[in-house]
Design goal:
The structure holds two protein chains of two kinds. Chain A is α/β, with parallel strands linked by helices. Chain A has helices at residues 41-49, 64-67, 93-98, 101-115, 126-131, 135-146, 162-176, 201-211, 226-230, 247-257, 269-283, 286-314, 327-338, 353-362, 375-385, 397-402, 420-435; strands spanning 16-17, 55-60, 87-88, 119-124, 150-153, 189-195, 215-221, 237-241, 261-264, 318-323, 342-348, 368-371, 389-392, 406-409. Chain B has three domains: 21-48 and 339-478, Rossmann fold (3-Layer(aba) Sandwich), CATH 3.40.50; 54-175, Rossmann fold (3-Layer(aba) Sandwich); 201-316, Rossmann fold (3-Layer(aba) Sandwich).
Chain lengths: 451, 487
């Protein structure tokens, strides 16, 4: 048996806050060999653009990047489902040697003829720049021939973490905005940015806003459509969810169209309510404010008694939260408080120092704050803090399960909506289902082993 | 053999009596589609690939060495995507380190990243072995990992905790995940095996099998009473218990010492009918140490298991133990009991080439008709391997390499087989065509049973057989107006 004591790597220490004076660092390139839970730029771009259901998503490179992102997220569409197919130039050795431009060109032409998409995104993978393919030129050529936007997404994996990929995706999206025939502003309208319609969440949120009399012009990118994105500049307000993914687009829209932006989160009662009130406040419309109040009252009156039995069982239990962006962590800390649970470990892949500082203030003293962590660190703190629940994504799941700890997927694998008021109920139900499962009695951690 | 169209579809039938393609399409008695018809639209793009990239296979192989941590030399995303993909199948921790390329690594080479990464992995994981596989980026910029590894070891020779560093070149533009697995196994043997006096044991290169398969192979070899060494063996590292404390590297895997002696074995067996010579670990051992090497297909079904057991008998000089013979006898009994339920049932089989060979030969011996055998792999050996092992199969059957799921879909819509047999990536197709999918092989992302699916040996055939026949009966029962309660 190798040495199983887990120590922090020297160079990781500044990205871990274990209480005391706050001196964290963040937004650094992942330490080589640290087994970061982060992904790459390509992943960031793919995440943001993936849900656009009537676009062709063409991965230019060897096969892996396309295979691993085939139908990877539960981003639902109310119509076309072209996004659920995987297309790749599947570069072979000779393409690497002689270049892949011709292959890319032919592939695009054929696929556009066959699938008739409203736009095509070409994701460049690691080797494309290295072998010198001029993807921009091919995009331009195909766009001219086929009359749809064909956009090269600068998403080579080595260019950074997901954050850089988000930016590339926003640049790609911005190419489409404003290509609508009209530029008339649409009154009392918003864009919902940064929600990917996992498990149909955007429909939940849209319904609330519509009940308030707000028109949703486009959602980027959940249940996204190219023609709606064209109109994004005509909305009066951009609601931006999630810390990073679509913020850049909101900034560009603000710069170009003067559209202000508001940050929002749809997780938990407080944040969801705030997301509705903020919009009503923005439009400064008493009727809308009353409507928001009505929506919230209706939903919360229904929800609170439903949460009570969960809270009774979960009171005082401890949770670890690790997500992609940091913004969601705040909502989860509050949501967990709502059902009686304390967060003792919190972190994200891509948060900023500012985010973590706020997080440390929001959480109880002694809460471990982690930036760009890895399986060993997570395992160390899960064990030390003796948590009852882990909230994360697929890569965190086996860490929790191996240690006999409950788990809730708050990432792309979730099958039940966790956003909105109904989402708070689903969330509480799932947490309860996992934490209170009888199976933990058999896990070594609870030591009810066969004598 | 006569079929519903009134003609005869055996290959040896007189030409005037044989089914032509059109007849076969109607009666479903045999394959009708010419390969050109399936790939005829000839899309340049790969649509819904029926393969993964090479570093995935290498990472899996490295997990079968005791104390080994896989390490991908390239961008962070490669490691992360592969981890996620494997976790969804095995439902186990799957730590893979990355040298985490940035723009400067692409310009100046990834040497420094590799060095930093290795040192951090050694500090963090204290591994006995680090298995380095290259990504397409590292290959494209021309990083000489072989040299880097040498330099790293020299530069760090003062370190007491230096692990064994293994490396394999796995450019994903030159092969699929199955190739990556084989390349890695060969590299492991190439870099670890040393000469020495012969010893009495069997070396087994098992192929990309499930943990359940690896466990059953151990059981079989144990029953033959000779020592053995399976390289690699990830049964325990990829299907382990819940822990009290976190294990940096899960227990299990074949120890380096054992692998280093593989050339001294009485004989080695390599499973996988489409492994090319230049990627064969068995061939390497044969050439380097003159060890007797048996290269056979995956032992799926009776005939291919018989071949495996014959080889074991030959090597050990022992008859097949009674309990295993008894499994075979019961299996034959099951084949007999169910033969009418499988007779003439058509299937489309897809996945890694070695699995496709194994499953096709198996389906054929229980009276089913494989009407399309397809893989995203490109060994150049698939068709011959199938026809050699199952001569009864119509040579016109489309047996296709380098196809994707979009092409398989075209064929499935034409062929309307009774069932699809392959990994869970066939579900999209199954849902669309309403043809049931029987999940086998890798990956199985939408069921729990992936790591516990047994394919090999008589017992594996029994389980596959029950799975398939039960599904066929379910179809018959569900589609019957009567609702029969006996079959």
């Amino acid at each position: 048996m190798p040495d199983e004591k887990i120590n922090l790597l020297e160079k990781r220490k500044r990205q871990v806050h274990e209480g005391g004076e706050f001196a964290m660092e963040a937004e650094k390139q992942s330490l080589a060999g640290s087994v970061s839970q982060r992904s790459c730029s390509f992943c960031g771009s793919r995440v943001v653009l993936y849900p656009i259901a009537d676009a062709l998503h063409m991965v230019h490179g060897p096969i892996g990047c396309a295979s691993y992102t085939w139908d990877i997220r539960g981003s639902l569409s109310s119509g076309p489902e072209l996004h659920r197919l995987s297309f790749s130039t599947d570069m072979q050795e000779k393409d690497v040697i002689y270049g892949g431009e011709k292959k890319l060109y032919n592939a695009l032409i054929e696929l556009i003829d066959e699938y008739k998409p409203k736009a095509a995104f070409i994701y460049t993978t690691c080797i494309i720049g290295v072998i010198g393919d001029d993807v921009q030129a091919i995009a331009k050529k195909v766009q001219a021939e086929k009359g749809i936007p064909v956009i090269a997404v600068d998403s080579e994996g080595f260019k950074g973490s997901k954050k850089e990929g988000y930016k590339a995706a926003c640049d790609a999206l911005f190419n489409i905005v404003g290509t609508d025939e009209s530029n008339t502003p649409i009154p009392k309208s918003i864009n919902i940015l940064g929600d990917f319609n996992i498990a149909g969440e955007i429909w939940v949120i849209k319904d609330y806003y519509e009940r308030m009399g707000v028109e949703v012009v486009c959602s980027i990118s959940g249940d996204g459509r190219v023609d709606e994105i064209r109109k994004a500049g005509r909305a009066q307000l951009n609601i931006v969810q999630c810390s990073g993914s679509v913020s850049n687009l909101a900034k560009m829209l603000e710069h170009e169209y003067g559209t202000p932006m508001l940050r929002a989160s749809y997780f938990g009662i407080e944040d969801m309510s705030k997301a509705l009130y903020d919009v009503a406040d923005f439009f400064d419309d008493p009727e809308m404010h009353k409507a928001a109040q009505r929506v919230i009252k209706e939903e919360v009156t229904k929800l609170v008694p439903q949460l009570a039995p969960f809270r009774k069982d979960l009171q005082g239990k401890k949770a670890a939260v690790y997500t992609g962006g940091a913004f969601k962590v705040f909502s989860l800390v509050r949501s967990l408080k709502t059902i009686g649970m304390d967060v003792v470990i919190a972190g994200s892949q891509t948060g900023s120092v500012e985010d973590y500082k706020l997080l440390a203030e929001l959480c109880d003293p002694g809460t471990i704050i982690l930036d760009d962590t890895n399986p060993l660190e997570l395992a160390k703190f899960v064990k030390e803090k003796d948590v009852d629940l882990f909230i994360g994504g697929v890569k965190e799941r086996p860490i929790a399960y191996k240690l006999g700890v409950g788990f809730c997927d708050h990432n792309h694998e979730r099958k039940e909506a966790l956003a909105g008021f109904i989402g708070m109920y689903n969330f509480a139900k799932e947490v309860h289902m996992s934490v209170m499962s009888p199976v933990w009695q058999f896990a070594p951690r609870r030591a009810n082993n066969r004598k | 053999m006569s079929c519903e169209c009134g003609k005869t579809c055996a290959p040896e039938a007189p030409a005037e009596n044989a089914c032509n393609a059109e007849d076969k399409a109607k009666c479903g008695c045999g394959p009708a589609l010419a390969p050109e018809h399936i790939t005829g639209d000839n899309f340049t793009a790969t649509r819904n690939a029926c393969k993964l990239c090479a570093p995935l296979g290498a990472s899996l192989a490295f997990r079968g060495i005791e104390g080994c941590l896989p390490f991908l030399h390239g961008s962070q995303g490669c490691a992360t995507y592969i981890r996620r993909y494997m976790i969804s199948h095995f439902r186990e921790p799957m730590d893979i380190a990355s040298s985490n390329f940035g723009e400067e690594s692409v310009v100046f080479g990834g040497r420094q990243n590799l060095f930093d990464g290795l040192s951090h992995v050694i500090d963090g994981y204290k591994p006995a072995v680090i298995g380095i596989a290259t990504t397409c980026l590292a290959e494209t910029i021309g990083d000489d990992v072989h040299m880097y590894v040498k330099e790293y070891l020299e530069e760090n020779s003062a370190r007491k905790d230096l692990p064994r560093l293994l490396h394999v070149s796995t450019p994903s533009y030159a092969g699929s995940h199955a190739d990556g697995y084989h390349w890695a196994v060969r590299a492991i043997v190439e870099q670890l095996a040393v000469d020495g006096p012969n010893e009495k044991f069997i070396g087994l290169f098992p192929g990309m099998l499930s943990p359940a398969d690896l466990r059953h192979l151990r059981e079989i070899l144990t029953a033959f009473g000779m020592r053995f060494s399976i390289v690699p063996d990830y049964a325990d590292t990829m299907d382990g218990p819940v822990w009290g404390d976190y294990h940096k590297i899960p227990e299990g895997g074949t120890p380096v010492d054992e692998i280093s002696k593989i050339g001294r074995a009485s004989a080695v067996i390599e499973l996988g009918a489409t492994i090319k010579d230049q990627q064969s670990a068995a061939k390497l051992v044969d050439e380097r140490f003159s060890t007797a090497a048996f290269r056979i297909g995956l032992p799926i079904g009776i005939r291919q298991s018989d071949e495996f057991f014959n080889v074991l008998e030959q090597i050990t000089g022992q008859p097949t133990p009674r309990n295993l013979e008894a499994e075979r006898e019961r299996l034959v009994d099951a084949y007999v009991d169910g033969h009418k339920y499988t007779a003439g049932k058509t299937c489309v089989i897809f996945g890694e080439e070695d699995y496709v060979v194994g499953l096709t030969v198996f389906c054929s011996e229980i009276g089913m008709k494989p009407v399309l055998c397809a893989s995203g792999g490109q060994s150049g050996k698939l068709k011959k391997a199938i026809l050699d092992a199952a001569p009864e199969i119509d040579p016109e059957t489309p047996i296709l390499e380098a196809v994707d799921f979009a092409e398989i879909e075209v064929a499935v819509k034409e062929l309307k087989p009774d069932v699809l047999i392959g990994n869970s990536k066939g579900f999209t197709l199954s849902r669309k065509t309403e043809i049931p999918l029987i999940r086998v092989g890798f990956p199985i992302h939408d069921r729990m049973s992936g790591p516990r699916t047994l394919h090999v040996g008589y017992r594996g055939a029994q389980q596959l057989y029950d799975k398939i026949v039960d599904k066929l009966l379910e179809i018959k029962q569900d589609s019957s107006d009567v609702g029969y309660t006996y079959f």
